[in-house]
Amino acid sequence: MAKTEGTSAVDPSTDASSEKRDGAVSGHAARYAKVYNFFGFGHAYNFPLWVIFAGGMLGFCLSRLSDLDYDHTFKNGFALVPGYWYYFHHGHFRVAMIMHLATALPAGILTVLQFTPVIRKKFITFHRINGYTVLLLFLLSNGAACVVLPHKQGGGARSATQTAEAFLVVITTFSMTMAWWNIRRKQIDQHRAWMLRTMFYMGTIVTSRVINFISAPIISRMDNYYAVWSCDELDFLYKNLGMPFPEAEYPQCLLPDGSLDLGFRVAVEATQLLTKPEQFGSSHTSPFGANVSSKKP
Asked: Between β-strands 226-230 and 265-269, what pairing exists: parallel, antiparallel or unpaired?
């Protein structure tokens, strides 16, 4: 009887299934490579980051383009919390806010094109023109933001909020200047790094909205937060809503003759009661200082 050799035979079915599995993996990888190569990416890990961050910026800016309908969508939408139309319905604050919206939103959309490699590689002239356009729009947006800072939503932490917002203006202007300086010196990697910093600094408005929506109901339940309103602001808000002034809630606003002391200021509780629009507005302005303080790098 012949002795059996000590070699193990290969199971043909196991080998076939292994080849099939490997082929499936390589097939998915090949299809994924076609997708990110189409957009000009040379590495697979860059594409998901571009989708998340550039896509987030693009989606936010496109969704807020309706705010350019200033007297309707912006006034009545969630972009402006109840009470702040008092500041932005006329005068230089109105002009500055419109200018801020009209420059920041297009700049955010065009920035996404700057970080799409296929455009940078195949349409270099467009990339350069678009880059200077984004730079100009962001600088105009920052200038307009400086005008509206004194009366942008901030609740009782207005000075702290204004400091954080002013810092954001300074750091974005500085990073854009550094990006421009480095591209003039043909330092491509440094130019790209500074533009990425600028994009993420500007993109903090998206995360601040998320933080605000989370924190507003939390402080409303805590029942221990207030914002300061003038009686004139309250009167303006209720008149715009076609509602009578809540004299029982704010008797301090009444003078002995029954008229309103428009310059007097009162504490407004931060709660999310839709029947109390000033309290609903306070619930969104009170946590705003925490939102923008997270913008600091």
From this structure: antiparallel
Q: What is the DSSP letter of 250?
A: -
At how many degrees (to 10) do helices 204-222 and 277-285 cross? Answer: 120
Angle made by CA atoms 171, 174, 178, in degrees to the nearest 5: 135
CB 297 within 8 Å of CB 171:
yes
Question: pLDDT, tens digit, for every residue of 8-50?
Answer: 444 444 444 444 444 444 677 888 888 888 888 888 888 999 9
Taking the C-alpha atoms of residue 43 and residue 66, their distance in angstroms, rounded to an integer, is 36
Tokens of 181: 């300086």
Task: Note if the pTM is more than 0.85.
Answer: no
Secondary element (H or E) of residue 267 = strand 265-269
The DSSP bridge partners found for residue 229 are 266
Which pair of structure tokens corresponds to residue 164?
């954080």
Please give the DSSP secondary-structure letter assigned to residue 72: I
